[in-house]
Design goal:
The complex is a heterodimer.
Chain A lengths: L3 H26 L1 H4 L1 H15 L9 H32 L4 H23 L14 H27 L7 H27 L4 H22 L16 H21 L4
Helix pairs in contact in A: 1-3, 1-8, 3-4, 4-6, 4-7, 5-6, 6-7, 7-8
Chain B lengths: L2 H29 L5 H6 L8 H4 L2 H8 L6 H39 L5 H29 L8 H17 L8
Classes of the chains: A mainly alpha, B mainly alpha.
C-alpha cells in the first residue's frame, strides 16, 4: 500500500526526470541561447532534484545542504524575472523608458508588499529542525512573493499596450507567476508547521515544481519565438497630429467642466 | 485548518486568478489592434452635435414660463438629459482611448526609445481622467439643478480632432 513517503519519492524522481528532459530539450532546440538564465536555473534544478533522493528531508544534513545551496536558486529567481523583462523590452525599444519606469514602480510596490508580509512575526506552532531555517525560509518566501507581485504588475503594465508577445514569453510569464506563488505558499506553510508536516509540504512543492516543468517541457518550442506583427508606419508629422488630438480632447474636456 | 494558512491559500489563489485574467487580456489585446481606416471614418462630429443643446438651461427656462409647469417636470427633464449626456461622454472616452492606442502603437513601433511620448501619454491620460471626473461631478450636480455644463467648445475642438485624425491615420487594414 503506497504511503506518503512513496508518493514523495515518486514525485522527486519524476521531478528529476522532467528537469533533465527539459534541459535536453532547451539544449537541442537551441532555446538555451534565448533564455540563458532559465537554462542555468534548470541545470541547477537538476542538482536540487538529485540530493533529496539520497538525503532524508527531515535530517540535519538535508538542512545544511539546503541552506548552503538554495540561495543560488533565490538569486536565479531574481535573474529569471530580469531576463523576461529584458526580452520584452528588447523587442520594443520605443517603450524602453516607460518600461523602466514601470519596473521601478513595480519593484517599489512589490517590496512594500513584501515588508508588509514580513512585519508580523510568524511564530511557528511546531518545533523547528534548525534555528536558521525559519529566517532562511522567510527570506526565500519574501523573494518569491515579491517576484510574483512584480510579475503581476508587469502583466498589468503590458495589458495596457497592444503587445505582440511571442508564445514562449507568455508561457514563461504564466508559469513563473504560478511557480512563485506556489513556492511562496509551500514555504509559508513549511515555516508555520515546521518539522511536523515537512514531508507533506515538500511533496506539495515537488508536485508544483513537476507541474511547472511539465508545462515548460510541453509548451516551449522554437516556433514559439515567432511573433506575428502588422504595425502601421507612422511619420513624425502623423505622430505630432495624434498628440495634438490628445491635447485638443483634453482641452475640450476641461472647458466642458468649467461652470458657466 | 488554521485561519492564517487559509488566508494564505486564498490570497495565492486570488493572485493566480488575477494573473490569469491579465494574461488573457494581453493575448486578446495583441490580436485586436484598434487602428484602421474604418475607425477613422466612423469618428464623426455629427453624433456629438446634439450635446450642444442637450444641457442648455434655456429649454427648462422656457418650460418654466409655461402654464402648468411643475418643478417635478423640470427635475425629470434634467434627469433624462443627464442620462443622454452620459452616453455621449462614454463615447468620448472611447474615442480618446482609441487615440491613446494610436500613440501606444507609435511607441511600440518605434525603433528608438520614446520617453517624450511616454511622458505625453501619461500626462494626457491623467488630464483626461481628471477632466472626465470633473465633468461627471458637474453632471451629477446638474441632475439636481445646481449647476450647468458648457459643451459648445467641447464639440468645436472635437470636430477639429476628427478632421486632423482622418488625415493622420493611413488607409490600411489591420490584420487580427
Amino acid at each position: 500500500m503506497p504511503n506518503a513517503e512513496h508518493f514523495s519519492k515518486f514525485f522527486e524522481i519524476l521531478s528529476l526526470g522532467l528537469t533533465v528532459a527539459l534541459a535536453l530539450r532547451l539544449f537541442l532546440s537551441g532555446l538555451f541561447r534565448s533564455y540563458p538564465v532559465f537554462f542555468s536555473y534548470i541545470l541547477f534544478q537538476i542538482f536540487e532534484a538529485t540530493y533529496p533522493l539520497f538525503i532524508k528531508s527531515t535530517s540535519q544534513d538535508y538542512v545544511h545542504v539546503y541552506v548552503y545551496t538554495h540561495w543560488i536558486a533565490y538569486l536565479l529567481h531574481i535573474l529569471l524575472v530580469a531576463e523576461i523583462c529584458r526580452l520584452i523590452l528588447a523587442r520594443h525599444p520605443g517603450i524602453y523608458s516607460l518600461g523602466r519606469w514601470a519596473i521601478y514602480v513595480g519593484v517599489l510596490i512589490s517590496l512594500m508588499f513584501t515588508l508588509l508580509t514580513l512585519t508580523p512575526h510568524v511564530n511557528p506552532r511546531a518545533p523547528q529542525i534548525s534555528h536558521i531555517l525559519p529566517y532562511y525560509l522567510a527570506a526565500g518566501r519574501s523573494i518569491d512573493f515579491a517576484l510574483g507581485i512584480f510579475l503581476l504588475l508587469m502583466l498589468a503594465f503590458m495589458s495596457r499596450f497592444p503587445f505582440r508577445l511571442n508564445r514562449n514569453v507568455v508561457i514563461h510569464v504564466s508559469v513563473y507567476t504560478f511557480f512563485f506563488f506556489a513556492t511562496w505558499l509551500g514555504t509559508f506553510a513549511h515555516a508555520w508547521f515546521g518539522m511536523e508536516n515537512a514531508e507533506l509540504f515538500n511533496l506539495f512543492l515537488t508536485i508544483a515544481a513537476c507541474a511547472c516543468l511539465l508545462a515548460w517541457l510541453v509548451l516551449l518550442s522554437p516556433n514559439g519565438e515567432q511573433v506575428r506583427s502588422a504595425f502601421p508606419t507612422f511619420t513624425q508629422e502623423r505622430e505630432t497630429r495624434i498628440l495634438e488630438q490628445l491635447d485638443a480632447l483634453n482641452a475640450t474636456l476641461m472647458r466642458t467642466g468649467r461652470k458657466k | 485548518m488554521d485561519l492564517l494558512i487559509t488566508l494564505a491559500i486564498a490570497l495565492a489563489l486570488l493572485l493566480l486568478v488575477i494573473g490569469g485574467i491579465l494574461i488573457r487580456n494581453i493575448l486578446r489585446t495583441g490580436s485586436n489592434l484598434p487602428l484602421s481606416a474604418d475607425w477613422i471614418e466612423e469618428l464623426s462630429i455629427e453624433r456629438y452635435r446634439p450635446m450642444l443643446r442637450m444641457l442648455d438651461s434655456a429649454d427648462i427656462e422656457f418650460l418654466r414660463s409655461q402654464p402648468g409647469f411643475t418643478p417635478q417636470m423640470g427635475a425629470k427633464l434634467r434627469q433624462q438629459r443627464a442620462q443622454m449626456f452620459s452616453g455621449y461622454l462614454r463615447s468620448l472616452e472611447s474615442d480618446f482611448a482609441r487615440v491613446c492606442s494610436a500613440t501606444k502603437l507609435v511607441m511600440l513601433h518605434s525603433n528608438q526609445d520614446r520617453p517624450d511620448l511616454a511622458r505625453t501619454l501619461l500626462r494626457q491620460q491623467f488630464q483626461f481622467a481628471t477632466g472626465m471626473l470633473n465633468v461627471r461631478c458637474q453632471l451629477f450636480l446638474y441632475r439636481w439643478g445646481l449647476c450647468g455644463v458648457e459643451v459648445s467648445s467641447l464639440l468645436k475642438l472635437f470636430d477639429g480632432v476628427r478632421l486632423e485624425l482622418r488625415s493622420v491615420i493611413p488607409a490600411m487594414s489591420m490584420s487580427a
